[in-house]
Fold this sequence. Notes:
single chain; alpha+beta; 7 strands
Amino acid sequence: xxxxxxxxxxxxxxxPNQPGAGGYEDRIGPxxxxxxxxxxxxxxxxxxxHHINIQGVVHGGMLxxxxxxxxxxxxWRAVNKRPCATISLxxxxxxxxxxxxxxxxxxxxxxxxRAMIFCQARLYVGERTVFNADGIWKLLGVx
Length: 143
């Protein structure tokens, strides 16, 4: 962990998200998951040096990638772990996340059709929103 890091996800009961997935997941991680009291999964990541851009804040691409990953897993669980894919993802940058910040994703399925799932995410640090996203996922193999 970075020298500025004070939060330890593992000590707080978080589990590594998609350990050993390889590829892109390894590049943007580590990311973490934890079942919430309401039964919904929570996702988080600790802003580390490799997430920071030249301006000294978490790169927007990291926030968008994390939103995509968190929403994708939410949808995947909602469709009983059947294959699905992002077909649209829109995001709005609301505020910065900084080195050492714990960034969490709050996700929600807005509408679940036969083949299309509409969802949204809010990424936040503490009570402060840093990014909002809405997306559409397609259940693969269903027309």
